Structures are given as C-alpha cells and as structure tokens.
Amino acid sequence: MLSEEDKRLYDLDVLARTIYGEARGEFNRTDGGLGALMAIANVIVNRTKFPQRFGKSISEICLKPHQFSCWNANDANYQMITSVQLGDNHIFDLCWNVAENIYQGKWPDLTHGSDHYYASWLSYTPAWVKGVKPQACIGQHIFFKLHA
C-alpha cells in the first residue's frame, strides 16, 4: 500500500506528464506560454470536484481511458510522456513545477472552473461543445465548464 506521500508524488508525476503530453508545444507560443500549461492542470484539478464522473485522484482522472489523448497507447505522445524524466529537458521540468503549484492551490484557475477543453486546431468541433459557452481560450485550447 502506498503512503500518502507516495500517492501525492504519483499524482504529481502523472499530472506533470499529462501537461507535457497535452501542451508542451504551447510554452514557446506567444498566445500560450506558461498560462497554457497551467490551464491544462486547472482542468484536471477542477475534475477532482466530480469524483463519480472523472475519478477519485489526479492520476485516476488523467489515466481514465479516452480523457487525455496523450495517455492512449496508440497516441504519438505516449512513448515520450512515459519515458521522460525530470532533468531530461526544461519543458518537462517546467510542467512538473506547474503541476506542483496547481496541485497545491498556489496558482489561480485561468479556466474559470472549466472541466473540458479541446484543441482549436482540430478539423472538427466535438459534439459535447454544442450549446456550451467557452470559459477561456488560452493558446491553442478552448476551455469549457460542463459540470456545475
């Protein structure tokens, strides 16, 4: 059985890898930057308010099938996010820092409570967006609050 500290570190690790897989390219964009990384973490932390729907822990939320595409075994990012380690590159180290600060509630929610997002560069609009007002547009992602 994992200790509370081990669970916390596992959650942080999975959160950092999810941020890295979902938004690492945003950091160097003028319309994304640090805020884009924070926003992905905000959505994940916001989902903790709905454990029946999304999962009971950060890691469960991130690893739930079909929620964050970077964790799909056939996704181009999967191998990278499962092998990267702290110290390998500055973007992953930054994702870890973002994960830690958002997890601890030290940084604000830039998404205004959003629990979903999608990449604006997709060639289609997801069906779940219909009739839902965006809460924020940060970098190449559009954020939505589907659960109150």
Which terms summarize this structure?
148 residues; mainly alpha; 3-stranded antiparallel β-sheet; 6 helices
The profile of the biggest β sheet is: 3 strands, antiparallel
User: What is the overall number of helices?
Assistant: 6
Overall radius of gyration: 14 Å
User: How many beta-strand elements?
Assistant: 3
Order of helices and strands: HHHHHHEEE
* Helical percentage: 40-55%
Structural class: mainly alpha
Number of domains: 1
Q: What integer is the average pLDDT?
A: 94
Uncertain residue ranges? none
Q: How far apart are the termini?
A: 34 Å
Characterization of this structure:
This protein is mostly helical. The chain has one domain (about 5-110). It has six helices and three strands. The chain has a three-stranded antiparallel beta sheet, covered by helices on one side. Strand 2 (about 135-140) and strand 3 form a beta hairpin. The protein is globular and about 45 Å long. The termini are far apart.
